[in-house]
Specification:
Keywords: Amino-acid biosynthesis, Aminotransferase, Cytoplasm, Pyridoxal phosphate, Serine biosynthesis, Transferase. This protein is of the alpha/beta class. It has nine helices and 14 strands. The strands form four sheets. A seven-stranded mixed β-sheet has the order 2-10-9-8-5-3-4, with helices on both faces. A three-stranded antiparallel β-sheet has the order 11-12-14. The protein has a two-stranded parallel sheet with strand order 1-13. The structure holds 4'-deoxy-4'-aminopyridoxal-5'-phosphate (PMP).
Length: 361
């Protein structure tokens, strides 16, 4: 089989070394004579994996002591409901900053549960940009302010996070968690489905500040309370053990690579290759995001016509580039360059973009 360059938007590339290690111990994990999937989630062998994943994420992401790391299920989408269920009390407002389709979906769910507002939105600019602090409209009874740190579909990303004092800041970091250093203390809650930067689908990571665990608990079904999972170290019910095992492997890999600062450096280098191909194309490739809002994770662009997009994508597919289609709701092209996508894949894409433009493929 020829080389495949995986630019899928999620689920997406995993580090080769991680897959190889998982393969090597698939039928005999840690001398147990069985796979990690077949172990009890109460067993010593599994619990060590579980705890190690929590500890490693805290270490790598510099998570202060007053935060808990939780492993949840239901994807980031369930967080869209769990957040308002937990925090939206009578007389308070869930305030949302809209920067793309996923923020809209988060808001839609909150509206089912309580009162909401839009603190800022870049919808009128077709989600090409990120709002600035001057644009925010807050209310003194905001229960929280919600943002999406990286907009997977439109290819924009917050470059700096606002400091918000009047209410906890909540961030959906599904598509950029652990891709760069973040000041965790700016946030009350961070959540992310694992299937882009952290591992396979099936586990959702939440990082929550301790004082938020008590909010509204009596009105929330037990399994949907953050506190339930915090009190039981995410072993209240059967966790997705294999997904957490893979998460632990991916975190181990991040540490071996030199941690988040090294990963961030590489991510910048990778994204630059592709943005340079766009910027040096005399308008042949048109980036969707404004330059100061460009995502390091999802690079979105179009060719002059829809027909050109199709031809570019068809040829790319022939050459082994996978997942370069834009999201079905917006079309165009998108290269997702998550942590596990190697530099070589981005070099190859840059070369392909250049040679396609100059008619050399
Ligand atoms: N938020 C963002 C930013 C996403 O990119 C996605 C998935 N692509 C989701 C939420 C939804 O995640 P899930 O499929 O895990 O529910």
């Amino acid at each position: 089989m020829t080389a495949v360059y995986n630019f899928n938007a999620g689920p997406s590339a995993l580090p080769k070394e991680v897959l190889q290690r998982a393969q090597a111990e698939l039928t005999n994990f840690n001398g147990t004579g069985m796979s990690v999937m077949e172990l009890s989630h109460r067993s010593k062998d599994y619990e060590a994996v579980h705890q190690n994943a929590i500890d490693l994420l805290k270490e790598l992401y510099n998570i202060p002591d007053q935060y808990k790391v939780l492993f949840l299920q239901g994807g980031a989408s369930l967080q869209f409901s769990m957040i308002p269920l937990q925090f939206l009390k009578e007389g308070t407002i869930g305030n949302y900053i809209l920067t793309g389709s996923w923020s809209e979906k988060a808001l839609k769910e909150a509206k089912i549960i309580g009162n909401t507002a839009i603190a800022a939105s870049t919808k009128d600019q077709n989600y090409q940009s990120i709002p600035t602090a001057n644009d925010f409209q807050f209310n003194k009874n905001d229960a929280y302010v919600h943002l999406t740190s990286n907009n997977t579909i439109f290819g924009t990303q917050w470059q700096d996070f606002p400091t918000i004092d009047h209410a906890p800041l909540i961030a959906d970091m599904s598509s950029d968690i652990l891709s760069r250093a973040v000041d965790i203390e700016k946030f009350g809650l961070i959540y992310a489905g694992a299937q882009k930067n952290l591992g396979p689908s099936g586990v959702t990571v939440a990082i929550i500040r301790d004082d938020l665990l008590e909010a509204n608990v009596d009105q929330v079904p037990t399994v949907l309370r953050y506190k339930t999972h915090a009190d039981s170290n995410s072993l209240y019910h059967t966790p997705p053990t294999f997904a957490i095992y893979m998460l632990n492997q991916v975190l181990t890999w991040v540490k071996e690579q030199g941690g988040v600062s090294e990963i961030e450096k590489r991510n910048k280098e990778k994204a630059k290759l592709i943005y340079d191909a766009i910027d040096e194309s005399n308008g042949f490739y048109r980036g969707h995001a404004e330059k100061d809002a460009r995502s390091l994770m999802n690079i979105t662009f179009n060719l002059p016509t829809e027909d050109d997009n199709k031809k570019f994508l068809a040829k790319a597919k022939e050459l082994g580039f996978v997942g370069l289609n834009g999201h079905r709701s917006v079309g165009g092209c998108r290269a997702s360059t998550y942590n596990a996508v190697p530099l070589e894949a981005c070099v190859a894409l840059r070369e392909y973009m250049d040679s396609y433009r100059t008619g050399h493929v």
